[in-house]
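Q: My labmate handed me this sequence with no annotations at all. I'd like to see what the chain might look like in three dimensions before we decide whether it's worth expressing. Could you predict it?
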Amino acid sequence: MLRCMRTTLTLDDDVAAWIEDVRANSNASLKEVVNEALRLGLKALTEPPAAGPAYATPSSSLGGCLVASLDDVADALALAEGESFG
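A: Here is what I predict for the chain of 86 residues:
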């Protein structure tokens, strides 16, 4: 089992400043801050994303069908064009 590993990290300037701010505000060592940040980051990378609330499409009533039957295409077209066969 691997207990401890020494390595050299090259940090971007913004990350180094952020770590330094956290270290100064928590009175923790650089090692403690980096290890905690890595733990949290690796946990976030390996866990599936949390499911948000399900989205439900709002519904609207469009009323009833204006044509008695859509089987008669000629009647449906006549009604749509404003004609009436009586």
